[in-house]
Specification:
This protein is an alpha/beta fold. Helix content is 22%, strand content 27%. The strands form 2 sheets. Strands 1, 2, 3, 4, 5, 9, 10, 11 and 12 form a 9-stranded mixed beta sheet that branches. It has a 3-stranded antiparallel beta sheet with strand order 6-8-7.
Length: 238
Amino acid sequence: MINKIFQSAADAVEDISDGSVVMISGFGEAGSPIELIHALVDRGAKNLTVVSNNTGSGNVGLAALIENRQVGKMICSFPRTANSTVFPELYRKGEIELELVPQGTLAERIRAGGAGIPAFYTPTAVDTPLSEGKEVRIFNGIRYILESAIKADFALVKCKSADRLGNLIYNKTARNFGPVMCMAAKTCIVQAREIVEQGKIDPEAVVTPGIFVTRIVEIPHPAHESQLVLENRRYPWI
C-alpha cells in the first residue's frame, strides 16, 4: 500500500544535505511551510540554494534559515519586504549571493523545470541589468531574452489537505508557487493542515496529483508568520 505519510517534519527533511537546491513555497506568509523550514534549520544543512518568492520576515521561517547561515544563494523576486532585515544585511556584507528574477519569470522557470522544458524566451527584463549575459532573439520585431528552467533537489510546500497518496488541495492564494514547485523537485515534501483518507478529496478538486509528491507530514495548527513577527519571536526559540 502506498503511504507517503511521515510522522514529523524532522523525519521528512532528514536527508536534505549540504549544497542542496531547495524550493520553498509561499507568497509572503501565504503558503509558507514554516514547520518544515524550522525542521530544516534544526537539520543544519548548509550552503543551500533556496528558490522562493521572497526572503522571509522577521527572524522566523525562511529568514531564520538565512540568519543561521545555512543559505549560500537566494533565487527570488523580492529580496526585501516590509519586515525583511536578515537577508538585506547579509547581502550588503557580501555573505550571501542573490539571483534576482522577475516574479512571472520565476514562476515560468520553475514550471518549465517541472515540464521538462530547458529554456524559454520572454520579453521581461529586456534591456535591463537582469538581461546582461543572456541570449537575445527577435520574434515578430520584439526582443526576447532566453531564460533557463529551474529544477531542485527538494521542494518544501504547504497545503490545506492531502491524502496518503499525496493528492493535494490548497487554501486559495496559499496555492501560489506550490504546484509548480512540486513538479520541479526530485523530492517534494509537503506539510498539510490535515491528511484525509484516500477518496475523501474530490478528484476534480485535486490541484497537485500525488505522483509529484514524495512525503507528507500533518501539521494541524501551523504557525502564522505574521503573528510570530509581531511577537518578535526568533527561531530557534529562545
